[in-house]
Amino acid sequence: MVDQPALSDTRVVRFGTDIVAAAGVDPLRCLVVEHDNVNDAMRMQSAAPYQMVVLHMPVAAGLSAMERRLLVHNLVGHLEPGGRLVAIGEPLSIESDAFAMGMDPVAALHGHPVWQRAPRRTIHDMLVDARRRIARVDASTLSATLASPGCDTVVLDTRAPDDRERDGVIAGSFHTPRTVLEWRVDPASGYSLEAITRFDQPVVVVCNGGYSSSMAAATLIDLGFCAAGDLIGGIQAWRDAGLPLHPPTEHFIEEIV
Fold first, then answer.
1. CA 221 – CA 41 distance, rounded (Å)
2. Extents of the domains making up the chain
3. Annotation: CATH topology of 14-124
4. Count of CB atoms within 10 A of residue 110's CB?
5. How would CATH label the architecture of 134-240?
6. What is d(CA 202, CA 137) in angstroms, rounded to the nearest whole number?
7. Which of 70, 209, 217, 224 has its CA 20 to 30 A from that of 233?
8. Three-state DSSP class for residue 72
9. Which DSSP symbol is given to 58?
10. What pTM, to 2 d.p., does this model score?
11. How far apart are CA 76 and CA 73, in angstroms?
12. What is the pLDDT of residue 16?
């Protein structure tokens, strides 16, 4: 199992070099987003936070409002506490998006607007910490693993029934809603899955986009499952990779006695 890398290499290109120098940050901890990596920036799920993100604003001009919000959300999520987001060549404002992510405006750099992430611990930091502890796996690797002889990897699908009906499920996965996940895994609960037989067994949590699954997998590490991890990008990444999805045959129904 492998972690999702950050965008290939941090690139401080011509329109970002002066900004990085003026800010006094480590160039290797600065991410510059332009046309050819904007799609990767919207989808990256790295465990390595940046000190600064420099966003070349013309790339946002071709995005819908929802896509732009997603881009800003993901970039802010990859900033360390106190990290800054700089908008260069701004033909359209991302002020409302930045404010929605809890960013505060600070002094401009070379005339370009800058927003700073709160210094407090946020959900983004919890996510980074979780991903440092778990064994993440990408869709192609998980698919190959599940197809290998003698595979005992257990895939736990935490999605809601409506999501499973809409997008389909990975063959052989178990529906373990987030509300009962730990009970369905820990043998001490008396309700654990028979498929999970030992604490070093590979267990992969799957959600819709690969965020809540990271947090959930970390709780399994806390329970002693040393090979717990999640699917990078969730079921959406599996689908985008062209891997098979099947109609669910059943959903977990909690019996209340």
1. 28
2. 14-124, 134-240
3. Rossmann fold (3.40.50)
4. 12
5. 3-Layer(aba) Sandwich (3.40)
6. 11
7. 224
8. helix
9. H
10. 0.76
11. 5
12. 57
Contact 136, 230 (CB under 8 A): yes
Query: How open is the CA angle 185-186-187, to the nearest 5 degrees?
Result: 110
Stated as kind and residue range, the H or E segment containing 83 is strand 79-88
Instruction: Read off the pLDDT of residues 186-222 as tens digits, 9 standing for 90 and up.
Output: 999 999 999 999 999 999 999 999 999 999 999 999 9
Is pLDDT of 17 > 90?
A: no
> CB neighbours (10 Å) of residue 213?
30
- Name the region of 126 (left: φ>0; alpha: ψ -120 to 50; beta: rest): alpha
For residue 1, give every residue at least 6 positions away whose Cβ sits within 8 Å of its Cβ, in sequence order, or none.
Answer: 135, 136, 137, 141, 202, 204, 227, 229
Burial of residue 235 (CB within 10 Å: 0-12, 13-18, 19+) is buried
Amino acid at 85: L
* CA–CA separation, 11 and 253 (whole Å): 49
In this structure, are residues 181 and 228 in contact, taking their beta carbons and an 8 Å threshold?
no
Give φ, ψ of 207 to 5 degrees. Answer: -125, -160
Q: Answer yes or no: is pLDDT of 171 > 90.
A: yes
State how far the Cα of 239 lies from the Cα of 140, in Å rounded to an integer. Answer: 11
Query: Do 14-124 and 134-240 show the same overall fold?
Result: no
Tokens representing 149 are 């002889």
Distances (CA, A) of 21 to 13, 16, 31: 12, 9, 13
